[in-house]
Amino acid sequence: MQNVIKDKSFVIAGRTYNSRLLVGTGKYKDFSETRLAIEASGAEIVTVAVRRANIGQKPGEPNLLDIVPPDRYTILPNTAGCYTAEEAVRTCRLARELLSGHNLVKLEVLADEKTLFPNVIETLKAARTLVAEGFDVMVYTSDDPVIARELADIGCAAVMPLAGLIGSGLGLCNPWNLRIILEEATVPVLVDAGVGTASDAAIAMELGCEAVLMNTAIAHAQDPILMAEAMKHAVVAGRMAYLAGRMPRKLYASASSPIDGLIA
Q: What is the spatial distance between Cα 130 and Cα 41, in angstroms, rounded to a whole number?
């Protein structure tokens, strides 16, 4: 009888999702390409940069929510472009107002424009404030296991360490730190930033991440819609491989067939 391994549900802030791929809405050539790529990805959670995209704060201008309707997708407003805790908190409050009391947010507080590396000091400060105000905080952070543990202890809904610098496409640069974060995790861990192609997403999932969040890897592909579909399959395959458990690595060859009973 075949052994069936049952996966646990992917749950964020009390809500269960089928897709473990989260996608962004920036860097596409137009709204039509944005819509088609998101549909091809199969994503159910879509992140939106409140300071860059119009979700109602600019009446009369094209509204991103017209192509990413909140009744179809979970909108994840993010604080991209914020460099202080105060800016990030203010942006989340604006998002909650624009989205009629929506509490799920993606917190990112950046250190500088060159690297877009997270400022963990400001991130911790903002996380404490937002959690105290009732926000469900999914937080972009460094791959420092100590900081990841602190953010979980504060009460963040998910911790999202970078794989590589935002938009770099370098893939998973430090799998060892990510392994420690996953080993100690008390909340969902998602890889956020640095993914370049489908194999990067699969590797993150094979390590045990609950999900992967990406934008540039899809939007800047030569064919964004096709890459979005590739990422969908990569995340599923990576999760299945994680559940299945890979074979042990060996230094030398091991025959696929037994050597006993070979014909002389």
A: 30
Helix axes 198-207, 175-184, angle to 10 degrees: 40
Exactly one of 8, 27, 29, 106 is catalytic; which is it? 106
User: What is the mean pLDDT of each successive set of 10 residues along the chain, which is 264 residues long?
Assistant: 75 96 95 96 96 84 91 96 96 94 95 93 98 98 96 97 91 93 96 95 97 96 98 97 92 72 62
**In the chain, which ranges are E strands?**
10-12, 15-17, 21-24, 45-49, 74-78, 104-107, 136-141, 158-161, 190-192, 211-214
Tell me how far CA of residue 52 lies from CA of 2, 48, 82, 164, in angstroms.
Answer: 50, 8, 11, 22
Catalytic-residue membership of 106: yes
Mapped onto helix, strand or coil, the DSSP state of residue 216 is helix
Q: What is the pTM of this model?
A: 0.91
